Amino acid sequence: MNSFGVNFRISLFGESHGPAIGVIVDGCPPGIPIIQEDFMTDLMRRQSGSKGTTKRKEPDLPEIISGVLDGVTTGAPVALMTRNSDKISSDYDEFRNVPRPGHADFVSRIKFSGFSDIRGSGHFSGRITWGLVAAGVIAKKITASMSISAKLISAGGSEDIEKAVNEAIASNDTIGGIIECSVKHPPLALGEPFFYSLESALSHIIFSIPAIKGIEFGVGFAAASMRGSVHNDSFVDSNGKTSSNNAGGINGGISNGNEIIFRMVVKPTSSTGTDQTTFNFKEGKMTTLKVKGRHDTCIALRMPVIVEAATAIVLADLILTDRGIHGTRKM
Amino acid sequence: MNSFGVNFRISLFGESHGPAIGVIVDGCPPGIPIIQEDFMTDLMRRQSGSKGTTKRKEPDLPEIISGVLDGVTTGAPVALMTRNSDKISSDYDEFRNVPRPGHADFVSRIKFSGFSDIRGSGHFSGRITWGLVAAGVIAKKITASMSISAKLISAGGSEDIEKAVNEAIASNDTIGGIIECSVKHPPLALGEPFFYSLESALSHIIFSIPAIKGIEFGVGFAAASMRGSVHNDSFVDSNGKTSSNNAGGINGGISNGNEIIFRMVVKPTSSTGTDQTTFNFKEGKMTTLKVKGRHDTCIALRMPVIVEAATAIVLADLILTDRGIHGTRKM
Amino acid sequence: MNSFGVNFRISLFGESHGPAIGVIVDGCPPGIPIIQEDFMTDLMRRQSGSKGTTKRKEPDLPEIISGVLDGVTTGAPVALMTRNSDKISSDYDEFRNVPRPGHADFVSRIKFSGFSDIRGSGHFSGRITWGLVAAGVIAKKITASMSISAKLISAGGSEDIEKAVNEAIASNDTIGGIIECSVKHPPLALGEPFFYSLESALSHIIFSIPAIKGIEFGVGFAAASMRGSVHNDSFVDSNGKTSSNNAGGINGGISNGNEIIFRMVVKPTSSTGTDQTTFNFKEGKMTTLKVKGRHDTCIALRMPVIVEAATAIVLADLILTDRGIHGTRKM
Amino acid sequence: MNSFGVNFRISLFGESHGPAIGVIVDGCPPGIPIIQEDFMTDLMRRQSGSKGTTKRKEPDLPEIISGVLDGVTTGAPVALMTRNSDKISSDYDEFRNVPRPGHADFVSRIKFSGFSDIRGSGHFSGRITWGLVAAGVIAKKITASMSISAKLISAGGSEDIEKAVNEAIASNDTIGGIIECSVKHPPLALGEPFFYSLESALSHIIFSIPAIKGIEFGVGFAAASMRGSVHNDSFVDSNGKTSSNNAGGINGGISNGNEIIFRMVVKPTSSTGTDQTTFNFKEGKMTTLKVKGRHDTCIALRMPVIVEAATAIVLADLILTDRGIHGTRKM
For residue A99, how far is the Cα from the chain centroid? Predict the structure, then answer.
């Protein structure tokens, strides 16, 4: 279940402390210019380095393994890979017996019968999102007529994000945040009823990103307190422009041509520096766990580019799937 | 794109005002007892009738077309269907020129090149969820060891739901609400990384239900304001029981054995009785639209059973997909 | 696993002696004219009636349940169904203990743990191909620029098919045959590498038709005795026309624009009128079985239209899946 | 469309003259021992070297990129890759204007709008089957209770294969052959009706192997000349053993427990050393083409191990997909 998409289909592989991580993009149309440099801006945005993010450093350079010839996609699967270089696996030995609260250590051990790789969270690591961002770079070329932009709009409950991060660092703790993503100038009528609506497809891929715990479209949860006469977005011209945008640009799961807007909540990083009382499964008693290693105070800082990538992947897939006369695929 | 699931796979068909609506359940294990009566409780819960819901009445009796012999599933696809009987299509003629705000009239016309059936919203109608509920009845038999329960916890912003509905009726307007779903006693380790996590699968199917605009797991959006040391759920015994349940029973996309909890927002019914100023696409100018027909003041009242069904379908699919030694599928 | 196709996706349901059989076509483009009469020619060709075919008679009229409005497809799933009316289930009781040689009675009992419906072979019945033929009628409209034609070219080893059938009837036995299918004027470049080549897709659906036991493309098995210099089809003009067509119009799994040709072998009908010595699983000893019921002397007589339908379904799916600039889907 | 399988799902990537080729195995159960050495026997069988095969030499050592820890699968996707080292791309420049008869040069140029990589046939190359064989090694561990064996039973129409190859070399031409594959001791009841029968699944993957042009199960095309009373395989014991095996161990698309047998035809290698008269698309006139490069006189010599791998992949997928009580997946 490490693949997503119908006609523009990505498959992820790799573990945090394995030899390499990567992605295959199957269904990529031919003729798209793509060189290694194209990936660097987004991969750098995803990387660690700024205050509040992990000290782990990876060059993260993508190798283009297949599907590109002379700087242009050929129509064959595009495989992208990067080597893991800066890993300290001994950090993780203890978690076999004392699974970290909030992490997948416990469930992955059960699910995979004790064989899962928990070093750096293995295949559950946020590091696996490297492949999402890399595939997103290609997807953004397919969706170039739109403007996809995500940003962190609050952290730790505050809109002063820098201050919130500093306070969390000072208390040796971690915080989450809220990311908002906007798609300006989307094509009309993207999204497939009944089960591949824009909201279904976007939430599906967004919840695959580690640490996301909620998503809402348009005014989202605020709709629960609104009257229908207020929530409805009235049409004001023949292109489908609406006077308000409470629906976040989506009616019946289909883009109505207005700006697509949604927000996601990122939980606080599970690897907090403070002591945690939890269970030692080997010794069968409670213990105190202190998670060492190099972790993010606020992982949400690194996630807007991942959200953009995921969004672009969905939109590229829906463009290549649409079959209407006004859509992109013709009989 | 009218199918959902990998190994327990449902396919929906039908339109609100067509001859019939239904669902096929492919991958249903053999040996499950199923008779027509089994469907009635949930189908009645979904039905109209109570205050605040549409006056449209359908017997909604399911015909079991295939996959069941002598009251037991055979392993072949189970097809379930019900005839549409109480339909008044003339209500909808006007919406071809003046698409209703908040509805799919406009986008479906564009997407399907003018050929979409907009009578009663056609294939975009909430009526199509009949098939979800019917399939959910079978899924609930597969997930019988768990307790899946959804309820409306607020409407129009108030926890006094009856009062909120009465006020909305009085003002000839509509309201939305918030539904909470709980799964007690879930099996450990359901959910597939990377792209078929519990959250991905649940959100995917939940957003297919018309009118849902947001979903959050555990404490959800409140996590944005919490510290990691507080949000983390510490393990307290060898079964994985946790002291708190901020994660809603899900770590790394996989069930950790604690109660699975999530909430969804339902927007106010788009068909409000009040006048709406919107665009007349034929005449090319603004107009005033009054939506007649028989509609729900608060469609959220009818949706908990749909949410339960969707949840059961996801869990049944994940049970039949799991391949771990501790899971359900063995080598 | 009762679905086939990626973007033009059909799902079959029903059993030979259940209430009804049918098919859902998901991904059908909007705007295709379709009325009940359109189905009759092909459904009649598939029907019983001629010498050498079963005496079972069904009106087999298709009901259009969904996806069509005012005689035109809407873009929503097209559901087609027909009632089973002429069934005599008592014919089959004996086969629970003495599974018929060549039939699925034995394997379906094992596979579905004793719960399978074996009346008239249940979901394994050739009757289920009704849905294939019905979906094929729609697919043929999408592939209308081509000419798809299948015919029985030999029966019982003889090209004098009528004589072969008469001899088989005289000896109270059954025969098989060879069907050849030709697609004239196919579009260039249909077929998807690596795993959805024309040959992979066609053979996949063709082997789903009961009784097919072999398929070959172009000169097929004869290629084993040919030299490369002879087998290669040289190009002779700028459209890709070739001097010979040993490859059956397919290079690298992709249509090269020349006539697509393939042949299939149909085994003799398993329900032969002669006595068969086989095992009685209840009594644990050998027995003599005489299969009564109304069966086809040469089921292959009824299958060309099924092969055409399957072929049209594959081609429609590949048309809607292609993404090249010279193909049908554009960026 | 470079993926195959439902629950044991492989994805291929790479081109003949690109940096590397490989495969991802998604859905691989945890706990399977796997080390680099395990791959060598089958990869060597697939390799060039013997008389009648290409002189291209590759170490072909697989790198295990992910999904394996300490020599055991973890349940995460297994990625396997090998570098392409011995490539001479200049051999292929001419084929852009004069596509080789029998190859994908022409169709890939059309399909991918001129952007396809035709060096060494690119993604259409037989070299891509490296990934099939590598994935097959894992699949064979899942199907270890069976004995899967394929062999070349004739070449160039002769059962004296060595003589046939020598004669073809002497005449500077190429030959094809027939491969027979046998699965001894298969589990009962593998295969999924309607569209994922054993024959459908096997033929689907087998036809993805370059150069295969036909497949037949059991007696195959010979069934066309047999009477039903002769073709039927009578049961002789309570395990389902049959007196004959004309059906090749498959009834109704499901394994009946007897040996599974099928044969495939491999066309003669398209790259023959003799002159070919064909079309020059650039100059718009006929020309004489002499294919240089290092090619196989009889590619069929290298293919039995590929057929075994493909067969094991199908059987592994069907094992992990079966849901019957007597099958492998339990409720």
Answer: 24
Give the closest of B31, B76, B324 to D30, CB-based: B324
Does C328 sit within 8 Å of A319, measured CB to CB? no
- Point out the residue among D2, D19, D31 whose CB comes nearest to the CB of A77: D2
Structure-token pair, residue C241: 């026309």
Q: Which of C303, C223, C312 is nearest to C260 (CA)?
A: C312
Does residue A311 contact residue A134 with C-beta atoms inside 8 Å? no
Which subunits sit against B, judged by 3+ Cβ pairs under 8 A? A, C, D
Cα–Cα distance for residue pair B220/B218, rounded to 1 Å:
5
- Do B113 and A325 touch, CB atoms closer than 8 A? yes
Cβ distance B76 to C122 less than 8 Å, yes or no, reads: yes
CATH for the D3-321 domain, from 1.10.3720.10, 3.90.1150.10, 3.30.300.10, 3.60.150.10: 3.60.150.10
Say which of B26, B74, B108 has its CB closest to residue C11. Answer: B26
Task: Output b/e per residue, C283-311; b: 16+ Cβ within 10 A.
Answer: eeeeeebebebebbbbbbbbbbbbbbbbb
What pLDDT does C47 receive?
85
Contacts of B263 (CB under 8 A, 6+ apart): B153, B178, B179, B180, B181, B215, B216, B220
Query: Do residues C286 and D236 make contact, with C-beta atoms less than 8 angstroms apart?
Result: yes
- pLDDT tens digits for range D220-253: 999 999 999 999 999 999 999 999 999 999 999 9
- The alpha helices in B126-215, defined as continuous H runs, are 129-142, 161-170, 198-206
Q: How many residues does chain B have?
A: 331
Q: Is B286 on the interface with D (CB under 8 A)?
A: no
Answer yes or no: is pLDDT of A328 > 60.
no
Strands A78-83 and A63-66 turn out to be antiparallel
Taking only the tens place, the pLDDT of each residue in B229-284 is 999 999 999 999 999 999 999 999 999 999 999 999 999 999 998 899 999 999 99
Window B:42-71, CB contacts with A under 8 Å: none
* Confidence at B58, pLDDT banded by 50, 70, 90: low
Distance CA A26, CA A24 (A): 6
Query: What is the nearest CA distance from B81 to chain D, expressed in angstroms?
Result: 21
Cα distance between residue C83 and residue D54, in whole Å: 59
* Cβ neighbours of A87 (radius 10 Å): 17
State pLDDT tens for residues D117-172.
988 899 999 999 999 999 999 999 999 999 999 999 999 999 999 999 999 999 99
Contact A12, B193 (CB under 8 A): no
Partners of A112 on chain D (C-beta within 8 Å) are: 30-31, 74-76
Which has the closest alpha carbon to C137: C63, C60, C67, C36? Answer: C36
> Distance between CA atoms of A238 and B281, rounded to whole angstroms?
6
What's the pLDDT tens digit per position in D288-316? 998 876 678 999 999 999 999 999 999 99
Residue of C nearest to B116 (CA): C74
Record the pTM: 0.96
- Alpha helices (runs of H) in D88-158, residue ranges in sequence order: 105-111, 129-142
The CA–CA distances, whole Å, from D305 to C200, C221, D48 equal 19, 20, 12
Q: Give the position of tokens 């009704």.
A: C130
For chain A, the domains span: 3-321
Work out the average pLDDT over A165-170: 95
Name which of B28, B140, B323 to mutate to probe chain D: the one with the most chain D Cβ atoms within 10 A of its Cβ. Answer: B323
Count, residues in chain A = 331
Q: Residue A48 is encoded by which pair of tokens? A: 């660690």
The tens digit of pLDDT for each residue in C169-214 reads 999 999 999 999 999 999 999 999 999 999 999 999 999 999 999 9
User: Is omega for the bond preceding D194 within 30 degrees of 0, making it cis?
Assistant: yes
CA angle A83, A89, A94 (to 5 degrees): 155
